[in-house]
Amino acid sequence: MTATLLWLRQDLRLADHPALQAALQRGDVIPVFIWSPEEEGEWQPGAASRWWLHQSLAALATELEKRGSRLVLRRATRSLDALRDLLVETGATAVYWGRRYEPLVIARDADIKNSLRAEGIEVRSFNTALLIEPWDVQNLSGKPFQVFTPYWRKACTAIDPPKPAAAPSRIAAPARWPQSLALEALGLMPNIAWYGGMAEAWRPGEHGAAALLGSFLGGPVKDYAEQRNLPAVSGTSRLSPHLHFGEISPRQIWHAAPEWRSTQFITEIGWREFAHHLLYHFPRTTNAPLRADFERFPWREDAGDLLAWQHGRTGIPLVDAGMRELWETGWMHNRVRMVVASFLVKNLRMHWLHGARWFWDTLVDADLASNTLGWQWAAGCGADAAPYFRVFNPASQADKFDPQGEYQRRWLGSGSRPAPIVDLKASREAALAAFKTLRSSSTDE
Ligand SMILES: Cc1cc2nc3c(=O)[nH]c(=O)nc-3n(C[C@H](O)[C@H](O)[C@H](O)COP(=O)(O)OP(=O)(O)OC[C@H]3O[C@@H](n4cnc5c(N)ncnc54)[C@H](O)[C@@H]3O)c2cc1C
């Protein structure tokens, strides 16, 4: 039989997996995960993501074993080296994988594709993560979109994903398995067990994802449009980490929820697609503002204020509640993400990258496409961004979206609270004044 290496990355599932399906048609399948964080540079998985990844790989290995297969684990500083070793050790003649869209990963994968093809190996990549590829949506002049509404309108005319394939019941195994590291040897779990809150809040893996989608479609989706902004209510799907790690695909969601396709819930999945569209077409935005005039923005540096924000000690109740939810569970409600981000970049006037990096380390759903979009949106320097002069007032946001204070009490408890580190009104005015200097020196508008 002809054997194929199935290189699993952010597609840690067995259902709706086009690369797995294609490998099965070829013959024996050798599923492999290679841990090589150095190749992802500054944006390699953070601490919360590593915790999730460990659990997700364990769940995937169990599912593979039930089907007569295994998950082969390797550690490498270059994935290409690990793949070459595996090709030699197994005699496999092809490598299949699901695409990723982060700039460094795209460059690495292109290099691997070229190198292995030159050595006579069949290499194929598949769309395992998106409803539509970033390059398949263009405006009338053939350019990428920078505004969500026309992007999504256009994308929806083209989205027509095939029905998802079920997880195979058997996966043909090679006659001899290559060696694998033990999962613990990847060192993904922290030395200090700070993850109790996360372990309580989540069930990583394909089954956990399917269960969440089932319960969400069985109830909360009906009231999503009204309840999605209320952080005290479980009104959203909480599928973001599962989607990031590919434990569930947006195509599965699309087909599981045909009656919700034109509603706000699927539109939010559209924001995830848009984030990937932007990351693919504007890769520099992971570290630089999409709107170049923001390069000159007079950001403040203040290590003490940053620490207070990170640890939920700003004295602004909704901000502190959100930052504590994040620390405790690895997730934060979207409305509160917008509020804490606005507070950091506007009231504290600190660079959005400080916020993006903290989220990167602490979110279980940390995703380079969505996190970059979210932070640039909040800072007013990205695509479709909230205008800089619209400063969220965390106190009125709390009155509107947490009117009983339930969410704030849940995360702050009833102990004494620190005094606010800034005056909301004065800091808002300082932010607007800083923004004005930018506009008066801008040559773009
Ligand atoms: C500053 C900031 C940073 C963010 N960083 C991330 C991140 O690193 N990873 C991440 O997945 N999301 C990020 N988001 C987007 C959003 O907050 C989360 O996707 C959402 O809260 C996840 O909860 P849910 O799964 O219950 O969402 P639901 O409301 O149930 O939405 C369903 C799915 O749609 C997608 N989605 C929803 N809103 C957005 C959005 N605004 N942008 C992109 N995709 C979206 C997610 O995949 C989500 O799971 C960020 C938002 C902000 C304001």
Determine the strand fraction and express it as a percent band. Answer: 5-15%
CATH architecture annotation of the largest domain? Orthogonal Bundle
CATH class term of the largest domain:
Mainly Alpha
Strand order of the largest sheet: 3-2-1-4-5
Average pLDDT, all residues: 95
CATH topology of the largest domain: DNA Cyclobutane Dipyrimidine Photolyase, subunit A, domain 3
Give the terminus-to-terminus CA distance: 63 Å
Number of strands: 5
Total of DSSP H or I helical runs spanning 4+ residues:
19
Structure, briefly:
With 445 residues, this protein is an alpha/beta fold.
Description:
By secondary structure, the protein is α/β, with parallel strands linked by helices. The chain has 3 domains: 1-128, HUPs (Rossmann fold, 3-Layer(aba) Sandwich), CATH 3.40.50; 130-164 and 206-281, Serine Threonine Protein Phosphatase 5, Tetratricopeptide repeat; 284-440, DNA Cyclobutane Dipyrimidine Photolyase, subunit A, domain 3 (Orthogonal Bundle). Helices cover 47% and strands 7% of the residues. It contains 19 helices and 5 strands. The protein has helices at 18-26, 47-66, 79-90, 103-118, 148-158, 196-201, 206-217, 224-227, 240-244, 250-256, 264-281, 303-310, 317-329, 334-347, 352-362, 368-379, 394-401, 406-412, 424-440, and strands at 2-8, 27-35, 72-75, 94-98, 122-126. Strands 3-2-1-4-5 form a 5-stranded parallel β-sheet. The chain starts with a strand and ends in a 5-residue tail after the last helix. The mean pLDDT is 95.
